[in-house]
Write the structure tokens for this entry.
Amino acid sequence: MSIREIRGEFQRFIRQLRKSYFYMEQRSFVEFGIPLPEEPERFHLETVGFMWSPDRKVCETVAYPFYVLDKPAFHQRMVSHVRDSGGEVL
């Protein structure tokens, strides 16, 4: 495999990985009455992070707790939560 092919495979892997996680503020769970996430859905809890402007020229520090979550696992739990509550997922 050439360096170019390896680089392409690595970039595809990173793009796929980025699709599988997201961030959610801890207060949102409390505010909406959603049980707090547990492993393996929850990767970890952060207390400080950075928020970048779309052009990446401005960076702000955010200092509040937020979770790093596995997106497919979170979606699966939310679908179960809706169905268990008598709701319908369209």
User: Anything to note?
Assistant: Strands lie at 21-25, 42-46, 49-52, 59-62, 66-70. The first strand starts at residue 21 and ends at 25. Residues 21-84 form one domain.
